[in-house]
Amino acid sequence: MNELVEIVGLTKAYDSRNVAVNNITLTLPKGRIIGLLGPNGSGKTTLIKMMNGLLTPTTGSIKINGAYVGPQSKARVAYLPDRTYLAGNQKIKDILKYFQDFYADFSRERAEEMLRSLNIDPDTKMKVLSKGTKEKVQLILVMSRNADLYILDEPIAGVDPAARDYILRTIINNYNPEATVLISTHLINDIEKVLDEVIFMKYGHLLLYTSVDNIREQHGKSVDAYFREVFAC
Amino acid sequence: MLGKLFKHEWKAVSKFGCIIVLAQLVIALLGNIYYRSSVWVNLFDEDGQLRNMASITWLLVGVVGLILMILVLCAGIYAVYIYMGIRFYKKMYTEEGYLTHTLPVTTHKLLISKIAVSGIWSLIITVIMVLTMASLVFAMIGSILKGQQVDQNIWEILGETFTVIGTVYAEEMGVNLTAVGIVSLITIIVGPFLSMSTLFGALTIGQLSKKHKGLMGVLTYFGIMLVEALIGMIVGVVSMSMSIGKMLEGQSVGMGGTMLASYIITYSISIGLYVISYYIIKNKLNLE
Predict the structure, then answer these.
(1) Minimum CA–CA partner of A105 in chain B
(2) Residue B267 exposure: Cα atoms within 13 Å on the Cβ side
(3) Do the chains contact at B103 and A54, CB–CB below 8 Å?
(4) Which domain holds residue A85?
(5) CATH of the domain at A216
(6) Total count of domains within chain A
(7) Which of A74, A81, A83 sits opposite B104 (nearest CB)?
(8) C-alpha to C-alpha distance for B157 and A155, rounded to whole angstroms
(9) Could you tell me the residue ranges of all domains in chain B?
(10) pLDDT tens per residue, range B201-238
(11) pLDDT tens digit string along A86-119?
């Protein structure tokens, strides 16, 4: 069985006029790096939050590794949200301990090694770090897990190009090759080279799910160019 | 996992709890030094009259000081509730909730760990508050009794007072004071946990609102408090009206049932709110 994520008839409607995700059915395999692409407001973050149990679907279901979203799936999903979610008064070393206690697949050694490579002192409190460094710390926490599914929501948004390169390198060098990485972004050009497959979303609908090679062969374009064509205003 | 949740929750709130406890102990120490001073022993003369104007001033300052200290001690309890409420809200329903709700733990464990830790701190601070208040009052009255050369100490006087109250309760109201004491003790122990369950339940209900979720949670809490008080009042009025006939006939009025009913109401509301919290987090969670 190669399926890792099974999404069936998934809808999230805040009210009758505001449907963020509309009847999506999708199966994601193991061992792929998949780009979740779409303009702002296309439903990417809503879909991701439902996969992590932070939003309750209106209808439909999500299974990860055969389990509905819950403690069992959360133990195998490493999630990087699109915002800072760590308390400012916590020291990095306390957060490492927290992750070590709750996630059996968390490698403290790997996290400390990555922190050292960036000259980040584990004794530092989160609130004194810059926005970019906070994002790097969060990424380090996520990528230090040996998860089945990594869900990264806008990991390179709002950081400088050098930091983007570091983040992408960290993702590529640290993810479990058996696992799937789902990266949501609209900065396609930066991540195109690492993607195996792409999902296009528009107004809450699933527009396309195909391989990067397929786009290049069928349309003779890069994913970025094809995205611009599909989502042209 | 429950143990780990408890450990991290305890570690996170213990700094705040220790500050409150320390403040209580400082008040207890300073208050006891003050009320056990020789001035209090010599406040009254042999006839039980205040000696002079300085004694009157001293007594007034002492009583006002006692009231202020009791108010500060009570404020400590409110501070605990406010702190725990804000912390629960932040950890569960703001950005920090992204970490809380992606932990591989069940909703029951999340709720129980938070109620347990905040309940234990609330219990510790309540007990220290009661003991501090009692020590201050005892120190003040004890010093005065000592100056009056009264043979009895304060414990003997208290014993006699409770015996009289117990007799009145038993004969006039049909309430066994020992039973009331046991139920009250249980309530003091269980009460902080139930109160936290109610507070967290109200804040969770507030999440169902589309806007101003925090404010709606606070308003829900005060709404629940109001409803609880109203139900208690209705039960009391009904009970009293039923008792009037008995009182006129010179029978015991049986207030034990009323007290039991008010405890059941409080317990039911708190347990009900725990169930509601669980349902909302499990089935209606919508972190923005």
Answers:
(1) B104
(2) 12
(3) no
(4) 3-230
(5) 3.40.50.300
(6) 1
(7) A74
(8) 71
(9) 1-150, 152-288
(10) 999 999 998 888 999 999 999 999 999 889 888 887 88
(11) 989 899 999 999 999 999 999 999 999 889 888 8
